[in-house]
Amino acid sequence: MSLLSVRDLTVKFAMRDQTVTALNQISFDVGRGERIGIVGESGAGKSITGFSLLNLISKPGFIAGGEILFDGQDIAKMKEAELRKIRGNRMAMIFQDPMVTLNPVLTIGQQMVETLMAHRKLSRAEAEQIAVLKLREVYIPSPEERLHQYPHELSGGMRQRIIIAIALLLDPQLIIADEPTTALDVTIQADIMELLLELCQSNKVGLILITHDLGVVSQMTERTLVMYAGRIIENGPTREIINDPQHPYTQGLINALPQQTLPGHKLKQIPGNMPALTDIPPGCPFSPRCSYATDRCRSERPRISRYGTVEVACHEVERLLKDEKKEMTA
């Protein structure tokens, strides 16, 4: 049985004059210790997916349907008291900005110790000892001293390491990392991602990495979900999706990478923009931007179909695969 099984998850937001759909019947599984990536442009629904998995959607948003089964328990139907036993304890989340996550008026030690004591029957001395060990795991120098410091006294990279240490405090089975290096310098980003990968592998912790960076996904994950306008449009092994993308949108994302363009030439872009939630087109939501779109694409929503080890939501994939084979044999 999968550690996490999401089935037909739908999330909506109640606006003043209408209700919009942010996630439209998405389904996927995460195995124990498995690392998956969720990629797509801003507005695709990546972060909403992460927040939904911990039932952290706040009003006017709400989970309108589907299941979020974590170890067989449906998080979407849990009461707050039950959720507190899951959040931070068995599932942890790393947010984009550590300065928003960390409490500026509490020391690092207070925040770590209180987290431990809220979930475990420990003395303060025992909790401090565990906090020091976790800080040492993420290569924080002089961890005993850091316990007495406030977040503003530390660098951005060190704050993010502390966030990772806090996420691992209670030995969770799954970590959701939402753009964990966005607020950091490029030189520090690689170190943080390498650290996160090392810790997940050594502790056998599952990882859901939410990012727009396909380069990071290719190095960090075993499987990738590609999202567009609140839907999963491609799902499969990361290596296959990076090397041989099937959906035209995924192909566009790969082609837009800087390394895909010759020096001195313009970067390749996907024409148009992600549709607003209030203006999702009928049929395939990517059809207005897709050079392969047909009348069927513009009127009928494509279902997920399996092609080998990859699942794709596209009417034209079969034809495109046949054309590709013809070119190879010509």
From TrEMBL:
Q: Please list the residue ranges annotated as the ABC transporter domain.
A: 6-254
InterPro entries, alphabetically?
AAA+_ATPase, ABC_Ni/Peptide_Import, ABC_transporter-like_ATP-bd, ABC_transporter-like_CS, Oligopep_ABC_C, P-loop_NTPase
List cellular component terms (GO). plasma membrane
A GO molecular function term, named singly, is: ATP binding
The family line of this record is: Belongs to the ABC transporter superfamily.
| Record membrane topology | Peripheral membrane protein
Please tell me where this protein is predominantly located: membrane
Q: Could you tell me what this protein is called? A: ATP-binding cassette domain-containing protein
Question: One short Pfam family name for this protein?
Answer: oligo_HPY
User: Where is this chain's protein located in or outside the cell?
Assistant: Cell inner membrane
**Keyword entries, A-Z:** ATP-binding, Cell membrane, Membrane, Nucleotide-binding, Transport
Superkingdom of the source species: Bacteria
Q: Which SUPFAM superfamilies match?
A: P-loop containing nucleoside triphosphate hydrolases
Sorted alphabetically, the Gene Ontology BP terms of this entry are: peptide transport; transmembrane transport
